[in-house]
Amino acid sequence: MDRPDIQPPKWALRLLRWYCKPRALEIIEGDIYELFEKRLQTQNPGAARRMFGWDVLRFFRLRYIKGISDLNSINNIAMFKNYFKVSLRSLLKHKFYSFINIAGLSLGLAACLMITMYVSNELSYDSFHKDADRIYRMANGQNGNWTPPRLGIQAKMDFPEIEEIVRLQGPYSQTFNVNGKVFREARGFNADSTFHKVFTIEFIEGNPDEALKEPYSVVLTQSIAEKYFPNESAYGQLVKLDGVTKKITGVIADPPTNTHFYYDFINSYPNETWVTVGNWTGNNFFTYAKLAKGTSLEGLEAKFPEFRRRYAGKDMLANSEYADYDELLAARSSPPTYSLKPMQDLHLHYPRFALGSNGSIDNVYTFSAVAVFILLIACINFMNLSTARSAARSKEVGMRKVLGSQRKNLISQFLIESMIVSVVAMILAMGLAHLFLGGFNQLANRTFTAADLFAPTTLLYLVVLVLIVGLLAGSYPAFYLSGFKPIKALKGEVKSGSGNAFLRKGLVTFQFAISIFLIISTAVVFTQLRFMSNQKLGFDAEQVLVVKKVSRLKQKLVSFKNTVLANPNITEVATSDRYLSGFISNYGYLTVEENPRNTSLMNIFASGNYQKALNLEIKEGRFFSPELVSDSLNVIINEATAKWLGWDEVIGRKVSRGPGAEFTIIGVVKDFHYTSLKRSIEPLILRNVSSTGWINENMDWWGANYASIKVTGDFQGAVAHVQQAWERAVPDEPFDYTFLDDSFAQLYDEEKRFGNLFTASSGLAILIACLGLFALAAFTLERRFKEIAVRKVLGASVGSLTMLIITDFTKLVLLGAVIAIPAGYFVMSDWLGDFAYQMNIGAFVLVIPALVVAVIAWLTVGYQSAKTALGNPVKALRSE
Amino acid sequence: MHRVNLGEFEELVLLVAAILHDNAYGISVMEEIEVQTERKINISAVHSALDRLENKGFLKSHVGGATKERGGRRKRFFTVTVAGKGALDFIHQQRNDLYNQIKPADLGLNSYGPTRYSAT
């Protein structure tokens, strides 16, 4: 060899050796090597090396590629078959343990499957919009939901960063009259004609650019259109919406359900000044902006304080005590501005901004935590039972090792076993999840279907989850069991050693801790709910019927009231612009004094008999008189307002809403809850709406939107009577009503669901933990069978023997309680922090859950202990 | 023998293996073909042809001793079996028979030239 230093490329040799059949390898390698040597004589080394590589690639033919038969793992496959067979036999032999393992795991996995589906759905909200990451909601300040009418248009003109804007209002519940048939739709929005440029929307009929341009246009979703016009095209038809004739200018595809505003129909805006001009302090619109690509959010937001000063400054000063804008700035901790919230965050992170979707990142976290907890408990069962049974499997392990099994083979054997259990559990879990989907939908307040449950992505998550669980649950037993010394294992000297028992006890303690924690949470949620419903509201919510949409009555209001009052069981018909427990807006007011102060007060317009209908308590002065017409400039405040005003004598003093709008305080009512007890009672002002329903004498401001009807005696009959009266007065508007006490109870629906979630999850946790405990106790007793027999022979009583076993487990429960109680206390105190009126977390709600778990554990273990202790000791001992 | 199942390249390889007699292995067959036919071929094609011929029973092989220039790797030598010899004979006979039936005029070589060019 002339140039021994020149070698063929390494990668090529390696590749050849990797793919080539061993049978042909030497000859092929030799031939191309020889060619390489020959080429070195005539060509340059680089070319020779390249040719060598090329030859290797050319040999990459089916004929020379290793097949299954060439893998030396043909033997492994046989071993895998053997592992599989042995695993199945072992599972079938110990049916009881297998059942508990699989049952626990499948319950856990079913819970996880549903929760995974829920979480991935929550996280997907609004992602279907094209350029979803560039769409933002404009907020008034940092937290103001509503924005002025000209904000969007002006911002688009001033800032090139803003590509497009759209204003929305809603969701509105409106009544359609289609050729005499009446339908009520709850999810309607008003929107600008740029709606389709910001949001992704699919027009089936109609021109997207024109659909919302003209006033009195309405766009329907396909399902609504098909409902109204089953056999014809809805496009171009006329419908009456809340009495106003509108033209259907488009039919659009139903939006996906994972959106923060689900719409059934979209109205165009009328060409009126409140839409086109408005003022900068009248906030009536939700504004969305689509930013240009590559816009810096911080950069744009930094320009907003100046923008607000330029356009809104004048209007802001008009109704304030400040002389100029700088004085206003000086009084605020940060300058008034606008801000941008990413649209995709609205559903979970800014639920206040979401228009109808009820998401909460806390719910996502809670659900995820519950899923992890339950799965952990199920995994712990698996690990505990496997290690507990290790002694029984030790001979098998010893024998396998003697016959040449290496540790890694044994590990894979036990992992395969745990995988089999997981996969069987997975199949069962899918069935269980399908079964419990309805219940889960109630807990999560969603409408998932089987199709969502078995969607490819959800199933993919499930498979990944099963692999993780199989590995997690199987790894400890696998590493532990495979570590046995063969001789000791065969001699039977392997016992569940103390370290092993310690771990097992630790895991059981952990299970108890989780169970106790979940029960404490359940107890706190329900005690708080009970606490809130037992609180005095400050007025009588019972036997009060609230009729909605009274604004449709207008001049028929008085006659309607008279018809209703004809029923002897109906004592009062009071009207108001808002109803208690519903949404109440706040208005800005100024005090009338030397240095006027500015505040916002919860504002309700109420008729003179409102106080009687709801039995509000008067603390000072008087309520509006039903007869006096002059009360339109008089107001009544609650104690919280009186306290804020801080005047010694409030009766006769004045507050104003700007020049020419001064109101005299004529009475103070005791504080009453007008909304959920999550919120404290804020300053509130009551203004008068006349018995004819108008707020002002010009009769262009209607204030009677709701009628609160006080009933004594026969409630059902009274409701039927009111309904009749309504149907006679406005036949084209469905009778819509609620009961005031129910309406208040509904404010806590979210908390109830939360409580139910904890009930379900703690029930599940306890169930799975008990399954494990039951099996573990059975196993322990099996091992101590002889010990118990000997004790019994020596005179121990059944009671003391049962206690012996129970005491062991009781210690674990106690330890679990020691961990769970502080954790529960801190987590639930945090949860209670959201409520203005909180229960005290007493010892009761902390200790009772621990006791409950202890009793359940005693029952689980005690039954078996007693059975063993009652047994005849001869049976246990005679074989020795 | 009704039909001999041999591809064109296989036939070539079988012939060359017969020529090389007891020195027929991958490289020598490849070089011989290159020299005799001036065809450029890849060693992998030769290998797979040799393998196929062995599977068909026209060649048999044995592994020879190690040689220096291959870094100690052994060679697989191929020799033509009786069946292989029979196949070669059969093909040769068949080709010759067919060839001999050609009348010189049937080739019609001269009649083509002028017509083809006159067309343009």
Describe this structure in words.
The complex is a heterodimer of chains A (880) and B (120). With 880 residues, chain A is α+β, with helices and mostly antiparallel strands. Chain A has 30 helices and 21 strands. In chain A, α1 (10-19) packs parallel to α3, α16 (407-444) runs antiparallel to α18 and α20 crosses α28. The radius of gyration of chain A is 38 Å and the shape is globular. The model of chain A has no long low-confidence stretch (mean pLDDT 87). Chain B has 120 residues and is an alpha+beta fold. Chain B has a single domain, classed as Arc Repressor Mutant, subunit A, CATH 1.10.10.10. Chain B has helices at 8-20, 26-37, 43-56, 82-100, 109-118; strands at 59-66, 74-80. Chain B is elongated, with a radius of gyration of 19 Å. Chains A and B meet through α2 of A and α3 and β2 of B.
Short description:
Helices cover 52% and strands 15% of the residues of chain A.
Question: Notable features of this structure?
Answer:
heterodimer; A: 880 residues; alpha+beta; 4 domains; six-stranded mixed beta barrel; six-stranded mixed β-barrel; 30 helices; 21 strands; globular; B: 120 residues; Arc Repressor Mutant, subunit A; two-stranded antiparallel sheet; disordered C terminus
